[in-house]
Design brief:
heterodimer, A: 2 domains, B: Aldehyde Oxidoreductase, domain 3, Aldehyde Oxidoreductase, domain 4, 3 domains, 19 helices, about 30% helix
């Protein structure tokens, strides 16, 4: 690991001010630190944002669940309020990585990193999330741009993620047996205003499958999904799963999610 | 006093391990130490044209940079294969030179070529990045099936073949096959595994300029053997000037049998640079350079009668040695594999032919089970295939071919002294509720799932030792084991053993044995191992040999203590030696109440005279002290056996395999500590199941390891396993006084075929290769659906 300057910011303003094109914010560090150790990334400045109280916490209303950016996966998984208001989100958090990752990793870090196989981005898409940063509010559908890419600017800090509570929802995934990331993860959410079928792990970036959503709009049942054709083009292919398998699993896990709704 | 052998004594080791007080190699720091970083080949096969260290050597903190040129100039020897194997045509095996730092050619990704020593680890890493190596990249040989037709990796080794070995009688097999009703054929790949000990390899080396002694702390399963190789073959320094210490070691599984490049290089360099050196592998280095396991391609045929009797068996295997032949590399796919090829069965004729070849991949060597898992996998899969093709129950076909009388002369080599294969399988059948499977299958089917049951019966040859036998087979050393038992004057006992514990709990098990033999409380017994300066000598721990060989050396040393103690006690008690009996730690004159405890006798042995109330003159001709040592070399291997049965449930929609039930019934002979044996069985099962369902080391065509991290190499986790249902049968080994057989490898030997037989059973007999990953199983389910539709 290359040497770097370490800063612990006391508030968002200070953290943002310290940020530059050669800095990284440190929350859980679940990706940042291993990347640095392996020499895949190096930064001049590491800005710890874990001590900024405002960035952590869970707020639940009748319509929304708002989670602070540095809230850990374990806190979401164990939150009684979330389990009651939005159990699919608590169960997603419970299935991330392993206990060590859940005890340190944060929701803001997960979505800022936008790993193509991460779980949380699918929740953002499915639950019409609004990403609150220190200078704007971003709709989830505009937030995720591509593989490990978001619309965040270098000095921009995610403060909280506001999820809309749907009428029904479920997240089902086929975990990679090695890493427990999603080989394919499908988050189905039925809102008053429409249906989202967010898919992670399958392609370079999380996406909302309009065909599946369309089929479910007509008939919210797993048999409706049977009729949808999912193409393998554009699907990831690696040593863990071929594109063809992934395409099939999108369907299988969408069905599982609908059945579990 | 109740016997401790057989009781669940809690581990003496746990206090330090569970409180973070273990002392591992990387916990050791020596004042003024430098840090080593190895420069490794990023290519699988290349010529080294030039190494430019000029910029790196000027980098901050750099103490020295050494390359293959330096090590060759100092005439430091390379790594060796410990067993010489002859080909069927009588020719000697062919092994390439394996210098500790490659000078001219690199042969796998991770092959070390130079080393940087610097004041800090970060400085060493930064300088290592400045070393410029000019390579001429050559085409890598990575496909095991095509190796013999590929370019020659090592000059003078045709077809990349180390040997073409045969065990058995081809003619007899041919005759048996001519008489058969049916020939069952099977082609399988035994997947490559990476051992993944929890503690990565490391070494810390100190050179004393005054005494000229080198002390090498290292992560080894056999420090004495490492010292021998480093002195005799490496020529680093004479044996008396080299101390090798393997302190607490966090798992080995075979991968720490070998003496590695880094230990030789750091030991040689510490003397050269006159500074202590510390090297600790990073996890990626472990993936790339620890010896790997398995990696066979096998074609097997089994000749059977229509009623399921076995007539003959042949096994044609290509075994991957990787880039170089290492200590157990050449014997693992031959004498540790071939003899077990026919499994537990009466097999009138058989042969095993193994072609061992070199590839541009990490060296392959012993990995928990070493050869026996590969052999057992093949025979147990083909026996199941025979059952399917003959329409027989897998238990029925096995029962039909078991030997029922012991000693049993096994077809290829072994004289199996004891066993009860019928009893073991019956017990496993009962414990697993085999007969209730049909009901459970229906239940699974009602949920849209498939359920399969798998059976394996195995025997293995472990307690690897008999020196006359192993040396005849090609072993470069004798495989006896030694022990020294030392009474302190105040009555506590120190047991020195040549075995090494890196998870096996010798400090407890061996103390239990000594406690029983000497009648001393276990708290007063300490077991010392892992230091060539402490104790006599040893050949180390592998091949489930510690208890059956090392443990018996302790028993014999204890018996010598008692013999001497009896003479001293007789003198003290003014009785004749014949009238003195030893029981529960006391020497008692028969038909009297006169007695001395062994502690009193020990005390007396160190005070051989008369003064005031001390009156303990030694018998005439007896030396003072109560210290005895023993070298034990058993007459034969030991032969554990067992029957494992498991059930899997498959989701045909996703192909995910859930291991639902697992029953293991093993015969380890006498069990000294059931708590520890359970742990060994559990760990072995985890690794065997890992091979069946998860673990798979993969290289790409250019020889890059594409599973070089835990993101891609699937280590099984606790939630992948059901609660293991463990049982035992016991037939004692007749070749050692405790009747013990060895339990360390059984789980890995039996679990892989058990799980795969269950998966294939669930898939209606459709073949599937290791490991049964979700996608492969999903495809098989789809194929089954297609063939069903076509049939309908």
């Amino acid at each position: 690991m290359k040497t770097f300057n370490y800063h612990s910011a006391k508030d968002v303003k200070e953290a943002s001010k310290l940020a530059s094109s050669s800095s990284a914010f440190l929350a859980g560090g679940m990706t940042t630190i291993p990347s640095m150790k392996l020499g895949l990334a190096s930064y001049k400045d590491i800005i710890n944002i874990k001590n900024i109280k405002k960035l952590s916490g869970i707020k639940v209303t009748s319509k929304n669940v708002t989670i602070g950016a540095t809230t850990k996966h374990v806190e979401v998984a164990n939150s009684k309020e979330i389990k009651k208001a939005l159990p699919s989100l608590a169960s997603l958090a419970e299935g991330i990585g392993d206990p060590q990752v859940r005890n340190r990793g944060t929701i803001g870090g997960s979505i800022a990193n936008n790993d193509p196989a991460a779980d949380y981005p699918s929740a953002c898409i499915a639950l019409n999330a609004i990403i609150h940063t220190n200078n704007r509010k971003i709709d989830a559908e505009n937030f995720f741009r591509g593989m490990f890419e978001t619309c965040l600017k270098k000095t921009e800090i995610i403060e909280a993620i506001e999820f809309e509570i749907p009428q029904k929802s479920s997240y089902q995934k086929l975990p990679n047996p090695a890493s427990r990331y999603a080989v394919v993860g499908v988050y189905v959410a039925k809102h008053k205003t429409g249906i989202n079928v967010a898919v992670t792990g399958a392609k370079a970036c999380v996406y909302n499958d309009k065909d599946l959503a369309g089929a479910l709009k007509k008939d919210f049942s797993s048999s409706a999904i049977d009729k949808v054709k999912i193409l393998s083009s554009g699907m990831n292919s690696d040593i863990h799963a071929s594109a063809d398998y992934r395409a099939n699993m999108v369907k299988v896990f969408a069905k599982k999610a609908v059945d579990a709704c | 006093m109740a016997s401790l052998v057989g009781s669940r004594v809690e581990r003496k080791e746990d206090k330090r391990f569970l409180t973070g007080k273990g002392r591992y190699t990387s916990d050791i720091n020596i004042v003024n130490q430098t840090y080593a970083i190895f420069i490794r080949s990023p290519h699988a096969r290349a010529k080294i044209k030039k190494i430019d260290t000029s910029k790196a050597s000027k980098a901050p903190g750099v103490v020295d940079i050494l390359t293959g040129e330096h090590i060759a100039k100092d005439k430091i020897g390379g790594l060796i294969a410990g067993w010489a194997i002859r080909s069927e045509d009588g020719s000697e095996m062919k092994c390439p030179a394996n210098p500790p730092l490659a000078k001219d050619n690199v042969n796998f990704v991770g092959d070390p070529i130079a080393v940087v020593f610097a004041e800090t680890l970060d400085e060493a890493k930064a300088a290592a990045e400045l070393v410029k190596v000019d390579y001429k990249i050559l085409k890598a040989v990575t496909s095991l099936a095509d190796t013999m037709k590929s370019e020659t990796i090592h000059e003078g080794i045709d077809k990349n073949m180390c040997y073409d070995w045969l065990l058995g009688d081809r003619q007899k097999v041919k005759e048996a096959f001519d008489k058969a009703d049916k020939i069952i054929k099977l082609d399988i790949t035994n997947n490559r595994l990476i051992p993944n000990a929890m503690e990565p390899r490391a070494c810390v080396v100190d050179y004393n300029t005054a005494s000229e002694e080198i002390t090498c702390y290292t992560t080894s399963q056999n420090p004495h053997l490492s010292r021998l190789i480093m002195s005799a073959f490496g020529g680093v320094t004479p044996e008396n000037k080299l101390r090798v210490v393997a302190p607490d070691v966090g798992g080995g599984f075979g991968s720490k049998i070998n003496l590695y490049n880094e230990e030789i290089v750091c030991s040689w360099a510490a003397k050269k640079i006159e500074r202590p050196i510390k090297w600790v592998a990073e996890r990626t280095e472990s993936f790339l350079t620890d010896t790997h396991g398995r990696d066979h391609i096998t074609h097997a045929e089994l000749a059977v009668t229509n009623d399921g009797k076995f007539l003959g068996f042949k096994n044609e295997t290509i075994a991957n040695l990787g880039a170089y032949a290492r200590v157990f590399g050449t014997v693992t796919p031959t004498y540790l594999f071939g003899p077990c090829a026919t499994g537990v069965y009466v097999m009138p004729a058989a042969y095993t032919n193994v072609k061992a070849v070199y590839t541009n991949t990490a060296p392959v060597d012993a990995y928990r089970g070493a050869g026996r898992p590969e052999a057992t996998y093949t025979i147990e899969r083909i026996v199941d295939k025979a059952a399917i093709e003959l329409g027989m129950d897998p238990i029925e076909i096995r029962m039909k071919n078991f030997p029922t009388e012991f000693p049993f002369k096994q077809t290829l080599v072994h004289q199996v002294d004891s066993g009860d294969y019928v009893g073991g399988l019956n017990k496993a059948k009962e414990m697993s509720d085999y007969d209730g499977f049909a009901t459970r299958k229906k239940e699974s089917e009602s949920k849209g799932k498939l359920r399969g049951i798998g059976v394996t019966t195995y025997f293995e040859a472990c307690g690897i030792a008999p020196s006359p036998v192993v040396m005849m087979l090609g072993c470069g050393v004798g495989l006896w084991e030694s022990a020294e038992v030392r009474f302190n004057p105040t009555g506590q006992v120190t047991v020195y053993t040549g075995s090494h514990s890196h998870g096996q709990s010798h400090e407890t098990t061996f103390a239990q044995i000594a406690a029983d033999e000497l009648g001393v409380p276990i708290e007063n017994i300490d077991v010392v191992h892992g230091d060539t300066d402490k104790g006599t000598f040893g050949m180390g721990t592998y091949g489930s040999r510690s208890l059956a060989v090392g443990g018996i050396a302790i028993v014999n040393a204890c018996k010598k203590i008692v013999t001497k103690g009896k003479k001293i006690a007789a003198k003290m008690l003014e009785a004749s030696e014949e009238d003195v009996e030893f029981k529960d730690g006391e020497f008692v004159v028969s038909k009297s109440n006169k007695k001395k405890t062994i502690g009193e006798v020990a005390f007396a042995s160190y005070l051989p005279g008369v003064r005031d109330e001390v009156k303990s003159p030694l018998p005439e001709g007896e030396e003072p002290g109560l210290v005895e040592s023993s070298f034990f070399d058993p007459a034969n291997f030991s032969f554990p056996a067992g029957s494992h049965i498991c059930e899997v449930e498959i989701d045909p929609e996703t192909g995910e395999v859930k291991l639902d039930k697992y029953t293991a019934v093993d015969d380890f002979g006498t069990i000294v500590n059931p708590l520890i044996v359970e742990g060994q069985v559990h760990g072995g099962l985890a690794q065997g199941i890992g091979q069946a369902l998860y673990e798979n080391a993969q290289y790409d065509q250019t020889g890059q390891l594409i599973t070089a991290s835990y993101m891609d190499y699937t280590m099984p986790r606790a939630d992948n396993f059901p609660e293991f249902n463990i049982g035992y049968t016991c037939t004692k080994a007749t070749t050692n006084p405790l009747g013990v057989k060895g339990c360390g490898e059984a789980g890995t030997i039996a679990a892989t075929p058990t799980v795969m037989n269950a998966v294939i059973n669930a898939l209606g007999g459709r073949e599937i290769s290791l490991p049964a990953t979700a996608e492969k199983v999903w495809k098989a389910c789809k194929e089954n659906k297609k063939s069903k539709a076509e049939a309908a």
